[in-house]
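Usage example:
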Amino acid sequence: MIKKITCIQCPKGCALSVDIENCLVVKVTGNECPKGEKYAISEIENPMRVLTSAVLTEGLSLKMAPVRTDGPIPKADTMRAMDEIKKLRLKKPAVAGETLVKDFMGLGVNLTITRQVS
Amino acid sequence: MTGRLTERELVIIGGGPAGMAAAISAHENGVKDILVLERDQYLGGILNQCIHTGFGVEYFKEILTGPEYADRFLQKIKQLPGVEVSVRSFAVILREDRTVTYIKPGVIEDVSAKAVIMATGCREKTREMVHIAGSRPSGIFSAGLAQKLVNVEGLLPGKEVVIVGSGDIGLIMARRFTLEGARVKAIIEIQKKTRGLVRNVVQCVEDFDIPMYFDHKISRIYGRDRVEKVAVVKVDDNFNEIPASAFEISCDTVLISVGLIPENELLEMAGAVIDKKTNTPLSEQVNGTSIPGIFACGNAFKVYDLADSVSKDSAVAGKMAAEYIKGLK
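Running the assembly step on the lines above writes:
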């Protein structure tokens, strides 16, 4: 089966053709760089996304501290991860890039603060 | 003149991606007396509310969020002794002789500069500019305002959302509202294809099964105190409504994401020639204006798709201003 997908690794958005057999990628065409092939395989076999959101702070300069996962997490875990993020509070100053939660939800990525909060 | 007059080599109006890149570049090119005026409390401009990833791919070869991208420039500016940043400082008058009047809490200041760079960015087009009929209840927001409310103020402005237009901010807010537990019921686009980046259609709309209607428009907004529903209709190739296709969507919130307008009223005030259609300065060269010594960069010069391109071109503006100042000596 050939599936058409759009690469989202950069703003170019290459139109990829992915040849799939038994839920596994056999061949990728249409990609202008190697990232496209890697993306297509991940997208078909186990779609992953970097999740960004913001957590409430207590007693700091900003009301919300923006956060991200420092690597992609399975798309299927997105809403569960949001529930966790909503429970979090940042209570002490942080710089951009600081880890808020190590090994977030056991997914092998850290949840990091993306903006300086004093 | 209204207050005391100080003199500077270079004044940059706006401390977003354009202003920050211009300041760093001007400094690197030998200007050591730079004043950056920023009306917000922090540098960074719109990047601070763009908490999603997608920045820096070209400029830093890394995928960063807006605040992370801004932080790279912030940290650099902090180390430049020749760049003074004045926050909560709002420029209200720009004159052809390159004097600027600005207000900050409690004071009015005048500054005279050898060169001025306008890095004032854009504002969002409003409902009025796309002529949507109906009542004027609460619950109608421009997409960028909603983005600020959710990401910076921590407020969710609605629970059932319809988005007008498929600009990038609208697509990104479709995902953001969904993640925060609201239901995005439709994105309505009058054109045949999205105005936003394809990657945003994939990861913000298709990922969450949000219905997108192309060749459709909102013909009316209903609601007395709060938005209650919208009427949607298909349009033909000449954008005429096809009445038989009309249907309604109940919702409490309408987001408007129909594009940006460069904010160039100060340039106009100074007498620069402005293209009335695009609200951008007319100039023979990139980053120029019709007034010698006054430059414009970033979204004030033209509307960009990517912050990375803004940074790149604004660095050129910083260099141009530096060369202009050198030429005066």
